[in-house]
Write a structure and sequence with these properties.
Elements lengths: L2 E4 L10 E8 L2 E8 L11 H31 L16 E8 L3 E10 L2 E7 L5 H15 L4 H8 L6 H12 L11 H28 L3 H23 L1
Antiparallel strand pairs: 1-2, 2-3, 4-5, 5-6
Length: 238
Amino acid sequence: MSVHYYGRGDHGGGFVGFRVTKSFNGDYRQAYFSTIPAKSQSDEDIYFRYQRLKAEYKEAEWEADSLWYQYQQFVTKSHGTSKPYRGLGIHGITAGFALWHGGKWEPCFMVSRAGKPSKRFMFRHHPFSEAWALAVNLWAEEYQILEVDRIRVLASPPDPEHFKKLRRQMNDHDGFDISVEALGPVFSEQREQLARERLNQRSNAALSLTAKPSPAVSQKEAEIDMLAWFETERKRAG
C-alpha cells in the first residue's frame, strides 16, 4: 500500500495526514496531503475525506504511470533474462533453433504463453515472413497488445542474418552443434525472391531487344521514306 496515514505523533516531523509513495524506472515519487485543518481525523470530517481521496487518486495516477512504463518496456525491449541473440526487441517472442523429428535442428520464432508451453513457428512449415506474422499476431492476442504496437512490430521483422549470429552463439558459447544446413529455411524466401527478380530482369531485357529496332533497320526505313517523298515530289513537278 503506497498510501500511508500518519496520525498525531506518528511522524517525527509532526506531519499529520496522508503520504503517497511510488518507485519505478529509477524514479522515486512521494506526495503529502495534510489533514491538520480537519476538525476530526476521520471520514466523518469532509476535509479529511477530501485529502484521503486526493491521496488515493494520486496513488492511482502513479500506478497507471508505472503500468504504462512496464507496458512500454514489454513492447520495445527484449526480456532482461534473454540469452544473446534470442531476444528480438520485445518481451514474449524469441528466435531459436528447435529439434525436429530425427534430431534435426530447425530455425523458428517462439512465443511464450502464460501457463502453457511456448508456441513454435518453424520455417520448415512457414516462410520467414509468414512465420513472423503468425508469431506477432499470437503474441498480440496473448498479451493484449495495443493495435498500434502490433502493427509496428509486424512491420519490423528481424533480419534473417540474425539467425546466423544465433547459430554461431549457440555453437561457440552454448555447447550446441547446429549444422550450417539448418540456416537453409531462413533464407529460402530471399532466394525465391532473388530468383524471381533475375527472371524478370531477363524477361525485360529480352523484350527490350525485340521491341527496339536496330540502327541498320531504322536507317533503311529512313532511306525508303526519303525516296518515296522524292518520287512523289518529282511526279508533282513533272
